[in-house]
Amino acid sequence: MTVTDFSSALHAAFEAPDPREAVNRIKNVVAHELAQTDTRATVKKTDFFNHSFAPDLVLSWPNERERFVFLKSDTRPAVLRDDVETIRKHDPIVFALDPVNDNPLGMDERGDSSRDDDTLLADSRGMEVLIQSRYNEPVVGLASSAVLQGGRGLLTEREAEAMASSVAAGFNGAQRLDSGATAAAVAQISGHFDRRRTSRLLRFLGAVWVGSGGMASNFPGEQDMAGDLDGTALEFLMELPPIDDFEFWRRIGRPLTLESISRLHLEDDSENLQFLVGSNLDVLHARACRIIEHQQELGEEENTDFRWKLEREMLCLRGPRSTTYFAGKVDELRVAAQEGDGISLQELLRRSEARRIPISELELATPTRTVSYATVNRDDVSHDEELLKLSKTFSSTAYVQTAVASLFGSRPLVCDFPSRTGKGRTAAKFPLGTFAPVALSLLTSLTSEERSSLDHVTRHYSEEQRQPALFEVNEINVAQSASEIAYGVAARNEIEP
């Protein structure tokens, strides 16, 4: 809705013959305007209109405080000042139904109010500038969301244009380590938002600055840049046009955890999510995973690639025939298992051999008998002659129920084949760079194309493992078995979280 459209809709609302219907239409028009400014906001109408101290609309967000919106049709400076004086203790949004001219609340040239409250006086022209700017520069969406949550001062057309251009230039400047453009955005942000939103926006710019190779100490702002990105800022970063820069995402992602990424709300598997996860497979750890097989949905394009997604508040890896969900604990896997019979011993040996995964123990079962097999030293048992002889004594109805893979030489991954669930024994956690390919290779039967795609989606982790960083290499026990050494490159690099 453009400014002209808004004015026409508002004028039509005022012309409704029934006063109650006119009020309802006015609120609907403004509510639509606010919802376009911040698509994450929930807008609720109240039973009041143009009341002295009762709001006309209430804005709410998950994990954020509500904000009252007061609609005002009389924009004369004296009237607005009196109205604001009555309600300013609520830090509200005063939405003028007519354009606001000059400086009705006595703000300085930067738009700062001399009062200590965080009242925002806005009109439709200012809101429309932010709405249109979001389409041209998606990063402005972070500022428009912050405006409704904690904007302060004056937001008319001129102020909104300055804010939008400054935030967009500041983001681009932080990527280029341009201190001038970044400093201008810092000044603009500091004057138009409450403390929480100011901290969030500056932390966002600071993270981009550091992610682009700058030093935190050189960031052109006085705010503490040591904090991590919050969920809202990270979500906006995910929704920006693709930033194909490995080092950028690696710097951004070092403080993140699997849990912090799982809490994000994204509408699709954005390219930036692929970059973020793919660049930080060594620091994102999980203890459990569950694989759910699926068929191609009607109308869905045929795809042989694996891609990172967020579903059911979990990070998952979706492939052409299955989706693998990851969690910090088994009871945090918010998806029911697809129960089966297990797999044959020959199939387990084929899968483990394909990726050279050492198996330290396993459990075979028939309808009437269960046998557990392991060596005293927990070595790789997959090629034991005794095990092969033992399997021949069972009927064709014998299935492997569970198997334990030894990752990094000693950390056990328990694979439950009937439920296609993998979990670390006791407190064992695994980096996604190893957990994903090992779990998928053991718990499912992969085609050669799927194995290639899986290797591609975890390629950065593999490259790092082949080139361990100085001081990250642990000594290898000379008593390791040959199978442990074959898989021990990853063991030498892995660092406990």
Task: Provide mean pLDDT, rounded.
Answer: 83
Largest sheet: 9 strands, antiparallel
Count of DSSP-assigned helices: 19
**End-to-end separation:** 49 Å
Taken as a percent bin, the fraction of beta residues is 15-25%
Rg over CA atoms, rounded to whole Å, is: 29 Å
Principal-axes geometry comes out as elongated
Portion in helices:
40-55%
Strand order across the largest sheet: 9-10-11-8-16-15-14-12-13
Structural class: alpha+beta
Poorly predicted parts: 108-114, 463-497
Number of strands: 17
What does this structure look like?
There is one protein chain. This protein is α+β, with helices and mostly antiparallel strands. The chain has 19 helices and 17 strands. The strands form three sheets. Strands 9-10-11-8-16-15-14-12-13 form a nine-stranded antiparallel β-sheet. Helix 3 (77-87) links the parallel strand 3 and strand 4 (93-96).
Sum this structure up briefly.
The protein has 497 residues and is of the alpha+beta class.
Layout of secondary structure:
Elements: H1 3-14, H2 19-37, E1 42-45, E2 57-60, E3 67-72, H3 77-87, E4 93-96, E5 120-123, H4 124-136, H5 140-150, E6 153-155, H6 157-176, H7 179-192, H8 195-211, H9 231-239, H10 246-253, H11 258-262, H12 271-278, E7 285-286, E8 288-293, E9 307-311, E10 314-318, E11 322-327, H13 345-355, E12 359-365, E13 370-374, H14 385-392, E14 399-407, E15 411-416, E16 421-424, E17 430-431, H15 432-443, H16 448-457, H17 459-466, H18 482-486, H19 488-493
Helix pairs in contact: 1-2, 2-4, 4-5, 4-6, 5-8, 6-7, 6-8, 7-8, 8-10
